[in-house]
């Protein structure tokens, strides 16, 4: 079974579902009042990996990922997010509730917290959570509690925004934190095995959410909390306010495969902060294309069983707190191992791809196509070798590698792959 770092317990521990063969997982989804950038997707790839590893062990996953859609242009950004998620091979969750369509359970939750004495009405009519009523606040992040808004009473500052009537008095809008509590309880029930999100959600969002859900039910709702670390881009925080936003559409405009983003994310441990760069995405794109080409080549060989040694090591890496960099490194080692038959390499790569989600079988049956200018460089390198100009031959090999073409010298001449 997968062992995962639990943020609240501060240790790596087995992710054991309460149900025998069912794991309930909630992931805090995107706020679609803006475009979702590639750094945001780390937490969703993280949740997708968890699901894939658990399902390979024969455990069904019931996943819920919400959509916070209370801002303008929400549908446009939601559609873009859904398309980007598909391009990254994220498996769709069983439940994808929109906040705008889940107001009733939010109002019910706030009413229950008022009834139980965990909430109170403020001077302006808003409803606030009484932080002191939840003594274990801070177990996820270590931060201290302050009262927060569960329901914001409508006032002139809302500038015509949609508001909803409440049973206590007047109209208003839900607080951000109450949205996830209400939707997770509605769609997954009062016993949730795992909740995931980016590290920035530990406080105050997940602390507040835990306090709300536990106070309403009278028991610990979420058994495990897991978080992925921040992603920088070119060494800077990715945010509109910082003027540093890269979207999946920007990746496509540069001719990079969208799954190069997924591979770049997988090549770093989810609990470590990482720095994406255009150069790094280019390397990931070339690696992805090489893996696919190798798989297509190996598909032409007689089928052989999965390599027991490599397969076991890769599975252990996945289940050891999602050590995807180690799993990918083992695949690189397998790629170069002359002792393993091509058919076994083929089966082992495709078996690993059930979790990696990189579409490594995409080039099977397709003819290899050289990038523009590569044919001329290959011919030039042949002439350099014939003239024993080894320095030029090495230089041209590097130029070909930059184009995504790998060259191998054999007794029968140079072989290439893309």
Describe this structure as you would to a colleague.
It contains 13 helices and 16 strands. It has about 425 residues and is an alpha/beta fold. The chain has 3 domains: about 5-230, Rossmann fold; about 230-355, no CATH class; about 375-415, no CATH class. It has a 5-stranded antiparallel beta sheet with strand order 5-6-7-9-8. A 4-stranded parallel beta sheet has the order 4-3-10-11, with helices on both faces. Helix 5 (about 200-215) links the parallel strand 10 (about 190-200) and strand 11 (about 220-230). Helix 10 (about 325-335) packs antiparallel against helix 11 (about 340-355). The longest helix is centred in the last third of the chain and has 21 residues, at about 280-300. The two termini are about 35 Å apart. The model has no long low-confidence stretch (mean pLDDT about 95).
Topology:
Elements: E1 3-6, E2 11-14, E3 22-27, H1 41-56, E4 60-65, H2 74-87, H3 103-115, E5 119-121, E6 127-129, E7 148-153, E8 164-165, E9 171-174, H4 176-188, E10 192-198, H5 202-217, E11 222-228, E12 231-233, E13 236-237, H6 248-253, H7 258-266, E14 274-276, H8 278-298, H9 308-319, H10 324-336, H11 342-356, H12 374-386, H13 390-402, E15 406-410, E16 413-417
Helix pairs in contact: 3-4, 4-5, 7-8, 8-11, 9-10, 9-11, 10-11, 12-13
Q: Report the CATH topology name of the largest domain.
A: Rossmann fold
CATH class categorisation of the largest domain? Alpha Beta
Individual helix count: 13
Q: What is the gyration radius calculated from CA atoms? A: 25 Å
Query: Termini distance?
Result: 36 Å
Question: What structural category arises from helix and sheet content?
Answer: alpha/beta
What level of helicity do the residues show? 40-55%
Spatial strand sequence of the major β-sheet: 5-6-7-9-8
Q: Could you name the CATH homologous superfamily of the largest domain?
A: HUPs
Rounded mean pLDDT is 94
Shape: elongated
Low-confidence stretches: none
Structure summary, number of beta strands: 16
**Approximate strand percentage:** 15-25%
Give the SSE string: EEEHEHHEEEEEHEHEEEHHEHHHHHHEE
Total number of domains: 3
Biggest beta-sheet profile: 5 strands, antiparallel
**What is the CATH architecture annotation of the largest domain?**
3-Layer(aba) Sandwich
């Amino acid at each position: 079974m997968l062992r995962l770092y639990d943020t609240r317990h501060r240790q790596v521990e087995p992710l054991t579902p309460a149900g025998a063969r069912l794991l309930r997982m909630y992931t805090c989804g995107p706020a679609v009042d803006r475009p979702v950038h590639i750094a945001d997707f780390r937490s969703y790839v993280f949740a997708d990996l968890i699901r894939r590893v658990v399902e390979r062990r024969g455990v069904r996953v019931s996943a819920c990922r919400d959509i916070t859609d209370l801002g303008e242009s929400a549908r446009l950004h939601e559609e873009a997010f859904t398309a980007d998620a598909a391009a990254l091979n994220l498996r769709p969750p069983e439940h994808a509730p929109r906040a705008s369509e889940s107001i009733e359970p939010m109002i019910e939750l706030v009413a229950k917290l008022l009834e139980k004495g965990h909430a109170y009405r403020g001077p302006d009519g808003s409803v606030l959570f009484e932080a002191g009523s939840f003594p274990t606040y801070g177990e996820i992040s270590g931060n201290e509690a302050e009262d927060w808004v569960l329901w914001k009473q409508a006032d002139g500052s809302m500038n015509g925004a949609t508001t909803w009537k409440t049973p206590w008095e007047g109209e208003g809008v839900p607080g951000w934190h109450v949205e996830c509590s209400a939707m997770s309880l509605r769609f997954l029930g009062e016993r949730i095995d795992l909740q995931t999100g980016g590290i920035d959600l530990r406080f105050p969002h997940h602390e507040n959410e835990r306090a709300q859900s536990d106070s309403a039910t009278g028991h610990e709702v979420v058994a495990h909390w897991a978080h992925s670390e921040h992603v920088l881009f070119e060494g800077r925080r990715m945010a509109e306010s910082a003027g540093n936003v890269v979207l999946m559409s920007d990746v496509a405009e540069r001719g990079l495969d969208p799954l190069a983003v997924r591979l770049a994310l997988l090549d770093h441990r989810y609990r470590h902060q990482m720095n994406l760069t255009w150069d790094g995405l280019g390397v990931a794109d070339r690696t992805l294309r090489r893996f696919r080409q190798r798989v297509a080549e190996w598909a032409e060989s007689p089928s052989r069983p999965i390599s027991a040694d490599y397969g076991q090591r890769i599975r252990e890496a996945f289940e050891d707190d999602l050590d995807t960099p180690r799993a990918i490194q083992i695949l690189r080692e397998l790629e170069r191992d002359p002792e393993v038959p091509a058919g076994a390499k083929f089966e082992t790569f495709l078996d690993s791809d059930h979790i990696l989600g990189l579409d490594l079988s995409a080039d099977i049956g397709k003819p290899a196509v050289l990038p523009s200018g590569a044919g001329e460089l290959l011919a030039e390198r042949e002439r350099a070798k014939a003239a024993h100009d080894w320095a030029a031959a090495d230089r041209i090999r590097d130029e070909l590698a930059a184009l995504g073409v790998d060259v191998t010298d054999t007794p029968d001449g140079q072989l290439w792959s893309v």
